[in-house]
Amino acid sequence: METAEFARADAEFYVEILERSHAISYKTTYDALHEFELNRLLTVNPKSKIPSRFDIAQEDIPAVLLVGGIGTRLQPVLPATPKPLAPVGDAPFLQLLIRQLRSQGIRHIVMCAGHLAEQIEEEFGDGHKWDVAISYSKESRPLGTAGAVKFAECLLTQASDFLVMNGDSFLELDFSEFIRFHREHNGLISMAVRRVPDTTRYGTVRLDTHNRVVGFREKMGTPVPGIINGGVYLFKHAILEHIPDGPASLEKDLFPSLLVRGVYALEQQGMFIDIGTPEDYARAQELCGRLYQAALPET
Predict the structure, then answer these.
(1) Which of 60, 74, 169, 235 is the most buried (most CB within 10 A)?
(2) Domain residues for 20?
(3) Distance CA 59, CA 165 (A)
């Protein structure tokens, strides 16, 4: 009986907050939802240890999703659809990333949009359907991955650290572990990397024995194993001081120039896929079930 009453109270509280989300800022919505989650855990068991995923939410680390690229290689398959909205199963690929973040307590999301931005905003709106708060940074011209992050600076003023993720790739990742790694190493940048058997399509990352990045190598076009950039990063807010206004690339311009300031890499073992080519997009369709299982391991 108590469980039923508690569940009903949950539902009523969520409905109240989410119905108000159109009239209040995403920050207010986020804080109200988070406070409720923590209070609920302590009400159920005041002596329980709050899971690490709620530690993340408590620190209010936002996630910046880079969704503004044109996706030239995928246009033959999706000529009028932005790449992050490419259907995988019965939902857009970008929904997979949002649900991955939400499942680990990350609810403040900034979309760096550009190409066909209106379609992305129409699909996801303010995020209340997924129990997240989404804001948008819309570039009027292509700014590249670094330029897009810089352009969103006004939406990151309260963040001491923030996540950045490519909107066209998925990496199975424990964000709690990633954040701990970032804080322990105290670098300006942390990146999640993945060892793959074939680096033909990718540049590679060179590490020392202390997980510090010491260099990058451009794609060689040959099928050799190596460590690649997984497209998920943690940045200190101070990184914005090093990004110029205008077009710039994280991978080609920013990261190589900041190696001396501390760039560290945490290797991952789980699923990784990007949908940048028709071949890999087709593979994502085949792996749809496994991708959602990796993104939502507790469901």
Answers:
(1) 235
(2) 2-50
(3) 18
